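Re-run with default settings, no changes from the original entry. Doing this only to confirm the output is reproducible before filing.
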Amino acid sequence: MNSRGMPKWREKQRSLPIFCLAMACGNAGMNGPSLSGWNDDNKLPLNSQPSTINSQSLPMNTPSDLRYCSSHEWVRLEGDLATVGISDHAQEELTDVVFVELPAVGRSVDAGDPTAVVESVKAASDIYAPVGGEVVEVNPEVEADPSLVNTDPYGKGWIFKLRVKNPADVSNLMDASAYQAHLS
């Protein structure tokens, strides 16, 4: 394992162009690359344009019982247990998910830490911890069938669960209407 808790074999794969969803949650003022695509040299554009797919061009599934990050993760809090996945918008932008790298159970993470990886036919994206805590469960179903992230992003397509350090931190994330406004 490397310092981020990812298997060392992934370091060689990391030399390929990586296309992140956005910067980590809570990094106000920092703009990561958009999900708009690659330039002709298969490199990320320096000045990424906003995505051409937004909540006004497609019906967007944004459940109101969840909280959202600007980096497109969602959180469902039940007591001190937070279930984490990627939003419908994120899975639409990634297209067909073909691989999910899950974090190690027992790993401690801070808000904004890269915690998992989702790879599609189009890109590979880090999935960030929306809040700090300890990974207590991962979803083996998405490892066996990564397409669940596309077909059921808020249900069977969840990625990991955290025992959160401070459940009140979840309230600092966007609600559904703020997330929809963020997308437009």
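The chain is about 15% helix and 25% strand. The helical segments are 9-13, 88-94, 140-144, 148-151, 176-183.
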